[in-house]
Amino acid sequence: MAQKAMPGTSPEGIRPTYMYKVVLLGSTSVGKSSLAYRYVKNDFKESLPTVGCSFFTQMLNLEVATVKFEIWDTAGQEKYHSVCHLYYRGAHAALLVYDIAKKETLNRAKLWLRDLEKEFLPDEIVIALVGNKTDLAAEREVTTEEGEEFARTKGLLFMETSAKSNYQVNDIFMAIAQELLQREQAKVSAPSPDGRSTVELGGSGVRTGCC
Amino acid sequence: EYEEKTGRAHRPLSPKQNVRKNLDFEPLSTTALILEDRPANLPAKPAEEAQKHRQQYEEMVVQAKKRELKEAQKRKKQLEERCKLEDSIGNAVLTWNNEILPNWETMCCSRKVRELWWQGIPPSVRGKVWSLAIGNELNITHELYDICLARAKEKWRSLSTGGAEVECEDAGFSAADREASLELIKLDISRTFPNLCIFQQGGPYHDTLHSILGAYTCYRPDVGYVQGMSFIAAVLILNLDTADAFIAFSNLLNKPCQMAFFRVDHGLMLTYFAAFEVFFEENLPKLFAHFKKNNLTPDIYLIDWIFTLYSKSLPLDLACRVWDVFCRDGEEFLFRTALGILKLFEDILTKMDFIHIAQFLTKLPEDLPSEEFFTSIAAIQMQSRNKKWAQVKKMLIFDNR
């Protein structure tokens, strides 16, 4: 797995620090920027449309490790696809975000999944399907079961969230951190042959050329 | 005890008034220093001490007066500077209106005009200058705008009634695509300069912005609506009448650089980034090496800056001044501005890692100092080994083929 682990950088010496690139993908105005903003600043405001990509960082001090998230919040408009699809290169986790009140955004999330499956092996990336805007329950077009079922068949993490009312936003990022750490553990007990260098800045290092 | 307290409260009043009356050099400000005698219920100061205190007091008053004089002079100077600035804007307006605009063709390229142009175009003539500088290569008339707008309105109607497909000549662009575009325009309008509160639903320019973007998707269905456009249209609306804003908008987007970006022509965008990097390395070699080391490619920050012509990332008044010179110098100024920003923050940026640089550049500080900013841009040389921007770009395009 393309992890950039830097064990021993914490002052305690025992607790390792991991840096993970997390990319937010999904249709326009499903709430990608709002999810990132809620998670990092614990606040909600109307976001400007993202042009290109915007960036957030968040640090998690967990019992077993320190996790640093590099969050890449991508532009949602389909026309930006050719630019943005390269932004997920070298990602360790991806959030496929859809709007529970807009059916077609789930279809778009499924397309993103297809893209990711072409780029990554299943154990190379943690993917979560996120149904955002549960505050719009009255306008719901996608049932929880439908999202859940799709995530289950594809082996994705799944959660419904609301960036506006702060519902399960922390939880989904925490679930991703746990999953990433679990895979880290599994890797230690069965070391992979390629033994990626610990100094290489994986996330940005494997990016080639533009985007 | 109670009596004592209330008594004390009354008595000191008279000596205080006495002192005030006796002073012929009272300080001007309300925070004046007042020399108090001891309260009457305490023994008076010895004459010597009283004299000393009076002397100290006088010195303090003199100091205070000096300070106040200095501040008054400073205020006067600020006022003079403001008047001078207003005068120069007033003069500039006169020069633009009476000398330059009537003789545009002959004067627009003169050195004097170019210098005045760099100082920033006064807001009252800005729209006119932009219109003239952008030109109307596409020969769009007000009538054509009306036709495009009527067509857009028809589509909105059929969308909202969920009616049958509108037949039109721009076949080949899927109805779903167009529908998504129109839907997206609606969404983005409310997200365009939300702080200004004029483009939002119910705001004075909401419909204007809606109309221009809608008309454009009908005028150029091959380009359609791309996020970022709403900001460009909004800035134009702030400076021009609707139809003229549409003409400027369409012609602006028709420029090679804007076409490459808004059509998301990835190959051509890469060429622009590569040309940018040539000048980046030439002007800021240290920072360039730092960016390379951190794998920070120009797309990370340039996409937002170029797509919105800085109107989303810079304070609006600075963005307008960038537009001024962009209208004068063309696309190369957009890249020169980018280098100016990098130069201005070079010291901080060299200390940052990938993610922090990316974060910083995609969300620039809101209190950018305008004079320093333009000085920084002015210091950027758009010349690399005797080659100018256009030559470097041409070479790179040729190489790619």
UniProtKB/TrEMBL annotation, chain A:
The Swiss-Prot or TrEMBL record lists the needed cofactor(s) as:
Mg(2+)
Question: Pfam families annotated for this entry?
Answer: Ras
- Would the keyword Lipoprotein turn up in this protein's UniProt record? yes
Which residue stretches belong to region Disordered? 187-211
Question: Which keywords annotate this record?
Answer: Cell projection, Endosome, GTP-binding, Hydrolase, Lipoprotein, Magnesium, Membrane, Metal-binding, Nucleotide-binding, Phosphoprotein, Prenylation, Protein transport, Transport
GO terms for molecular function, please?
Answer: G protein activity; GTP binding; metal ion binding
- Major location (coarse): other
InterPro entries per UniProt: P-loop_NTPase (IPR027417), Rab_GTPases_membrane_traffic (IPR050209), Small_GTP-bd (IPR005225), Small_GTPase (IPR001806)
- Record field: compositional bias (Gly residues): 202-211
Tell me which EC number(s) this protein carries: 3.6.5.2
Task: Supply the SUPFAM superfamilies for this chain.
Answer: P-loop containing nucleoside triphosphate hydrolases (SSF52540)
Biological process, per Gene Ontology: plasma membrane bounded cell projection assembly; protein transport
Which SMART domains does the annotation name? ARF, RAB, RAN, RAS, RHO
Give compartment(s): Cell projection, Dendrite; Melanosome; Recycling endosome membrane
Kindly give the membrane topology term recorded for this protein.
Answer: Lipid-anchor
List the record's Gene Ontology CC terms alphabetically. dendrite; melanosome; recycling endosome membrane
In terms of CDD domains, this protein maps to: Rab5_related
The UniProt catalytic activity note for this protein reads:
GTP + H2O = GDP + phosphate + H(+)
Annotated family: Belongs to the small GTPase superfamily. Rab family.
Q: Which PANTHER family match?
A: DRAB11-RELATED
Q: Which NCBIfam families match?
A: small_GTP
Query: Under which name does UniProt file this protein?
Result: Ras-related protein Rab-17
- Give the species this sequence originates from: Stercorarius parasiticus
UniProtKB/TrEMBL annotation, chain B:
Q: Quick one: where's region Disordered?
A: 1-23
Q: Name one Pfam family in it.
A: RabGAP-TBC
- Coiled coil ranges (UniProt) are 47-89
Which InterPro entries does the entry link to? Answer: Rab-GAP-TBC_dom, Rab-GAP_TBC_sf, Rab_GAP_TBC_domain
* Sequence ranges assigned to domain Rab-GAP TBC in this UniProt record: 120-330
Task: Report the record's Gene Ontology biological process terms.
Answer: vesicle-mediated transport
What Gene Ontology molecular function terms does this protein carry?
A: GTPase activator activity; small GTPase binding
Is Coiled coil among the key words of this record?
yes
Q: Which SMART domains match?
A: TBC (SM00164)
Does the record's keyword annotation contain Coiled coil? yes
A cellular component annotation (GO) from this entry: vacuole
What is the top-level taxon of the source organism? Eukaryota
Q: Which keywords, in A-to-Z order, does the entry hold?
A: Coiled coil
- This one is known as TBC14 protein
What species is given as this protein's source? Answer: Stercorarius parasiticus
Lineage start: Eukaryota, Metazoa, Chordata, Craniata, Vertebrata
